[in-house]
Specification:
single chain; 769 residues; mainly alpha; three-stranded antiparallel β-sheet; two-stranded antiparallel ribbon; 28 helices; 5% strand; globular
């Protein structure tokens, strides 16, 4: 793979604009090469080439370095402190000199840009390191205090202890030599192993000044260290949210119990993992840009027949970008600290948490996906042939049977289609370098690839189609009518199997992804009691497009609750409880999104969330009126209300999709009617998506006006509408994540924000000042 492609592939997506413009510099060198080739025949050696070779030979023999005669790189100061570089090309009068001046001007711009960005990020790392240092001091003191309280409660008077080998100032006594002690825990520690885990901490050097993640001073009383320290509660659970409503502050005094210590350790563990990830990305950023500068200078030497690489690379190596040893040393200290404190000196376990292995594509996933796809297609053909052979749709009993059985299996069809769309989204997110694992907050190395999602969809399709074919065979074949009870239980058995797999606690079938889904679903259901995150919004929006699938769940309850074998669907619609659930289940996803918007409105005080909430409220009204009209056919008044409410909701939702969620139709954009930044190079894709979104949003008109389509059954029309809405949602998902990714790119957000457990009174005073 050429370096240019590898360089682009290895970029941190959110930092792409902060990398050196390697391709732009290559274009300038390409123009230089074409110019030089046009001025002389490649087979003839020009006098200048001869002079340069002679000069080079003289240099190798001990003469003056020819590089000093090509460029002169100056290090300047801007605004008194900001360092930048300016290169003077000394052979501007020669042929092609203007292009070479342009090249070095562009090269300096890129070096200054990259160096400034790296220095700024490193300053952020330094500040975070200092903050983590204070947090670790508090953690160590809290550990000692909790242990001290535990020992005080479990024993009284004298304790057996071991004198640990650490530089402590101790007050010795005769009792010390006997193996017992009466000194406080701070001066003489018991349980040597646990205390040793607290000792190794982080240090690094920068600009000749030493900043240290120092070792906790065990001569100090933990109460002194913890004085003014409070626990920060981030309202991460319904109970903490309810408590936060009745309390003015989200901070509480330390209680010094084990549960509190366990929670603090977990939060700091996550903070250390994220901090280490920042260091890794920063080091990789430095390495890739240094490689890019080295490669482009080698190309310059090749195209211009001049030697200027060494002198320029000396400047690059001496810049902040080239001094990455500080980051490397800090990474080593972080590793040692994390392994000691958070993984009990188990290096393999600690490094597994700090450096999770990247997922590798497995051949069996591709094989099984292909196998399941082929089997699903074969089963689908078999079902169609079976229906045509027995002419089920021409018989009254067959039509009635299909009306009863098809809604049960359509649930699986909606899920399969949604998984297929999500698989396609992942494929295009990866193709256009949209960092979806970071946006969703997925644990590194656990995200599903598009092949794995496709495998799940084809596996589910195989189960559903196999069950459907078995249902038709047992119901219509004379020999299969003896298994009537078994035939009726096949759909329910499939549903139970899928639910068991989804919530199974064992490490099978992508457990981490299943847990992430169920936890996010639980947070959606509990809205607004949990703080809202992007996965919560995203999943709730997906559920709004699965109205018919959710109603199929209610249909299962009614079918198997009534206990009759025929005309169940008609009887369900005459059942009061079913009709109530038929209303409620369709409204629940929109209500969850409404509550999420209210939560964000209260937290961020942004009226945009109020408008978004009103949009979902209008959709709730439209869904309720449309459902009433569906159950009370022939009433013109309900039809007019359904048209008006649905039209208002459609206009609001379409505007929000295109303008807010996708960020398109921006005024004064350099891409007319779009936005400034586009991940997809073909602009026509965006215009086609906007038009298609409007058309698919209007598909509900058929459900209300019911245009006469003699070849299509009402059940078929409803299924097609539900499938079109799922397809629209899949298209929406791609552009929604693209817009979110570009927002992160605009602010260079490549890390998730990890809340720290402790706050200090002096920090509060600084904020007030």
């Amino acid at each position: 793979m050429k370096f240019g492609k590898d360089f682009k592939k290895q970029m941190v997506p959110e930092w792409a604009e902060a990398y050196m413009d390697y391709n732009g510099l290559k274009r300038i060198l390409g123009e230089l090469r074409e110019y030089k080739q046009s001025k002389q025949h490649p087979s003839v050696t020009s006098p200048r080439d001869f002079e340069q070779k002679s000069s080079l030979s003289g240099t190798l023999g001990g003469g003056r370095d020819v590089e000093d005669q090509v460029i002169d790189v100056n290090t300047l100061r801007r605004d008194g402190s900001k360092q930048f570089y300016m290169t003077k090309f000394l052979r501007q009068s020669e042929e092609g000199g203007e292009l070479e001046v342009t090249f070095f001007t562009k090269l300096d711009e890129e070096l200054n840009k990259v160096n400034t960005f790296y220095k700024g990020k490193f300053e952020e790392v330094k500040q975070e390191a200092s903050l983590l240092n204070k947090q670790m001091d508090a953690l160590v003191a809290l550990r000692i205090k909790v242990k001290n309280r535990h020992q005080d409660s479990s024993s009284s008077g004298r304790r057996d202890c071991v004198d640990i080998t650490m530089p402590l100032t101790r007050n010795t006594s005769a009792a010390d030599t006997s193996g017992t002690c009466e000194l406080p825990l701070i001066q003489q520690q018991c349980q040597i192993g646990e205390v040793e885990h607290m000792r190794q901490l982080i240090e690094f050097k920068h600009d000749n000044s030493r900043e240290v993640f120092h070792t906790y001073d065990y001569n100090r009383d933990p109460l002194e260290v913890l004085e003014g320290v409070r626990i920060i509660h981030t309202l991460e659970s319904p109970i903490s949210t309810i408590k936060g409503v009745f309390k003015d502050s989200k901070e509480e005094h330390l209680s010094f119990d084990k549960d509190e210590l366990r929670g603090v350790e977990e939060r700091l563990r996550v903070a250390f993992i994220e901090f280490y990830h920042k260091l890794r990305l920063l080091k990789h950023y430095s390495f890739m840009n240094l490689s890019a500068f080295s490669k482009i200078m080698k190309k310059y030497e090749k195209f211009s027949s001049r030697r200027a690489s060494r002198s320029y690379m000396q400047i690059v190596d001496n810049s902040d970008l080239g001094n990455s040893d500080e980051v490397t040393n800090l990474m080593g200290r972080v590793e040692a600290t994390f392994i000691k404190i958070f993984s009990h000196s188990n290096r393999r376990k600690g490094m597994k948490l700090l450096r999770p292995k990247a997922k590798t594509e497995k051949h069996k996933v591709s094989f099984l996906s292909g196998f399941f796809s082929g089997c699903s297609i074969a089963l689908l053909v078999a079902i169609v042939l079976r229906i045509q052979a027995q002419k089920l749709m021409d018989k009254k009993d067959g039509t009635q049977y299909m009306e009863n059985i098809f809604p049960l299996y359509s649930l699986f069809g909606y899920i399969v289609l949604h998984l297929l769309m999500f698989s396609a989204d992942i494929y295009f997110w990866r193709r256009y370098r949209i960092n979806y694992p970071f946006i969703f907050g997925l644990k590194r190395g656990t995200e599903l690839s598009y092949r794995e999602v496709f495998l799940l969809s084809t596996g589910l399709a195989l189960l559903a189609l196999g069950g459907f074919l078995a249902n038709i065979y047992l119901a219509m074949d004379l020999s299969g009518r003896h298994y009537k009870t078994l035939n009726q239980m096949i759909p329910l058995g499939l549903l139970i199997l899928i639910l068991v797999i989804t919530f199974c606690p064992f490490n099978i079938i992508y457990r981490s992804s299943r847990f992430f889904f169920t936890w996010t679903l639980f947070r959606c259901i509990c809205a607004p009691l949990y703080p809202e995150t992007f996965p919560d919004f995203f999943l709730a929006d997906q559920l709004t497009s699965q109205m018919q699938a959710l109603r199929s769940f209610v249909l299962y309850i009614c079918y198997y609750g009534l206990g009759e074998s025929s005309r169940r669907q008609r009887k369900c619609h005459k059942h009061g409880v079913y009709n109530s659930l038929y209303f409620v289940i369709a409204v629940i996803p929109y209500w969850m999104r409404f509550l999420q918007c209210i939560r964000r409105l209260c937290e961020e005080k942004d009226l945009k969330h109020l408008c978004n909430g009103l949009k979902y409220l209008s959709t709730i009204v439209a869904v309720i009126i449309r459902t009433i009209y569906e159950l009370h056919k022939g009433k013109t008044s309900w039809m007019v209300l359904a048209l008006l409410s649905s039209a208002v909701a459609t206009m609001m939702n379409t505007y929000w999709d295109i303008v807010v969620d996708w960020g398109l139709l921006q005024k004064q954009s350099k891409n007319r009617f779009l936005r400034d930044r586009l991940q997809v190079p073909h602009k026509s894709i965006y215009f086609a998506a906007m038009i298609l979104d409007v058309i698919l949003r209007l598909a509900w008109i058929q459900l209300v006006l019911e245009f006469r389509l003699p070849s299509l059954h009402k059940m078929t029309v409803t299924t097609i509408y539900a499938c079109l809405e799922i397809i629209r949602r899949g298209m929406w998902s791609f552009f929604r994540l693209e817009n979110e990714h570009l927002n992160n790119v605009g602010q260079y957000r490549a890390f998730k924000s990890v809340p720290l457990p402790f706050s200090y009174n002096d920090e509060d005073d600084d904020k007030e000042d």
